[in-house]
Amino acid sequence: MIKTENTPIAEQELSTEEKILAAARSVFTKKGMSGARMQDIADEAGINKALLHYYFRSKEKLFDRIFEEASNKMFSILNSIIADEKLSVREKIKDLIENYINMAIANPYIPAFVMGEANQNPDFIKEYLIKKISVHKQLIAHFQEAISLGEIKPTNPVQLFMNVMSLAVFPFIVRPIFQAGFGVTDEQFNALMEQRKKHLVEFIMAAIKP
């Protein structure tokens, strides 16, 4: 944004902060927390390093902001679905798949960013996720209850949870490889993921049918 006398200061600052956050998402996704430098982020944002430090005093504070933003988008919806006692197991599975894929299409940097940090900083991720994923045991218990009532086929509930999430997450983790190998554009990939919502729900429902 070009600053003019008529441009409110708050709007000018918001524009600069948005540029910094967008640059930080890109750099942290490519290089991770340990590999990123503040100069890299400043260069990506098209600003000088002094201005970057004015908004964010350290790389750690900026990373915390980006990771908090990413994890909230990823886990807040999932937690709310899992905690909803009005939903059946089948409804929860359907909503988990559809909402995760919707989130990943709208925020394509998040899956690779979170998984990258999980590999590079497992202790940090473990402590962080303990706070964020507060209801996963509730979902496992719901799976077990549905199995005992004969609503779904007897299976290991932990394996079922892993199958649901991994089948939804995996395409976004390997997206660059898939797109390069098959010559798929961003638009084509997103169209495939829209189709995948229905395909994956049908696949899981068939697998758990008693």
From TrEMBL:
<feature type="DNA-binding region" description="H-T-H motif">
    <location>
        <begin position="37"/>
        <end position="56"/>
    </location>
</feature>
<dbReference type="InterPro" id="IPR009057">
    <property type="entry name" value="Homeodomain-like_sf"/>
</dbReference>
<dbReference type="Pfam" id="PF00440">
    <property type="entry name" value="TetR_N"/>
</dbReference>
<dbReference type="GO" id="GO:0003677">
    <property type="term" value="F:DNA binding"/>
</dbReference>
<dbReference type="InterPro" id="IPR036271">
    <property type="entry name" value="Tet_transcr_reg_TetR-rel_C_sf"/>
</dbReference>
<dbReference type="InterPro" id="IPR050109">
    <property type="entry name" value="HTH-type_TetR-like_transc_reg"/>
</dbReference>
<dbReference type="InterPro" id="IPR001647">
    <property type="entry name" value="HTH_TetR"/>
</dbReference>
<feature type="domain" description="HTH tetR-type">
    <location>
        <begin position="14"/>
        <end position="74"/>
    </location>
</feature>
<protein>
    <submittedName>
        <fullName>DNA-binding transcriptional regulator, AcrR family</fullName>
    </submittedName>
</protein>
<keyword id="KW-0238">DNA-binding</keyword>
